[in-house]
Amino acid sequence: MARTLTVAAVQAAPVPIGAAMDPFAAAVREQRDAGADLVVYPELHLFGTETWPVEESEERLRAASVPLDGPFVGDLCAIARDAGVWLVPGSVCERGEHGELYNTALAIAPDGTLTASYRKIFPWRPFEPYDPGDRFVTYSLGAGRVGLSICYDAWFPEVTRHLAWMGAEVVVNIVKTTTPDRAQEQIGRAHV
Q: Which of the following is catalytic: 77, 94, 120, 176?
């Protein structure tokens, strides 16, 4: 049976921590209006620290971290509901029950329900201050089963393999590419 899922994989610069959510909500609606069923943003899209000195990033991320049952995630759920789309708003800095700091991807249903959350298992050491997650996550969105993965997790084939074993037909790997290795990822022009 043929199934169709229109995905908008948005490439956008990170939004500074604490920025107003209205522009983000408008951007999600814009993707819906263009026909997207699933709107996906980059890793830590709403937790940008690029304008701060690197030494301050961890402290500021910890101060900005949120619980998954708090108002920030509630606002993201309302944005998905108002737009009527599946939403992966990038990942958030999740405050763990015992003070941990997780890089957590969210999957929100068109009715505004937080359907899945995945804590990055392989933080990029030594540059990322996050505690590692401890489980793989998949969820169903009607058109099929989706697995969640974050950036450096993709370097370990076991992650994608395990998600496939769990039934994932698609793996959404969100990535933030403002890191120090960015120059390696860009294609240069060859001079002959």
A: 120
Catalytic residue selected from 43, 77, 93, 94: 43
- The neighbouring-strand residues paired with 16 are 48
Enter the DSSP assignment of 70. Answer: S
Surface-to-core class of residue 126, CB atoms within 10 Å of its CB (0-12 exposed, 13-18 middle, 19+ buried)? exposed
Give the angle subtended at the CA of 24 by the CAs of 3 and 174, to the nearest 5°. 55
**Does the CA dihedral 154-157-162-163 come out positive or negative?**
positive
Tokens of 113: 């329900």
- Each residue of 89-108: pLDDT tens digit? 999 999 999 999 999 999 99
- The three-point CA angle 123-148-12 to 5° equals 75
pLDDT digits (tens, 9 = 90+) for 152-172: 999 999 999 999 999 999 999
Q: Is 55 a catalytic residue?
A: no
- Is 43 tagged catalytic? yes
**Residue of 77, 93, 128, 151 with catalytic role:** 151
Rounded distance between C-alpha atoms, residue 107 and residue 88, angstroms:
5
Residue among 83, 86, 96 nearest 116 (CA)? 86
> Is 58 annotated as catalytic?
no
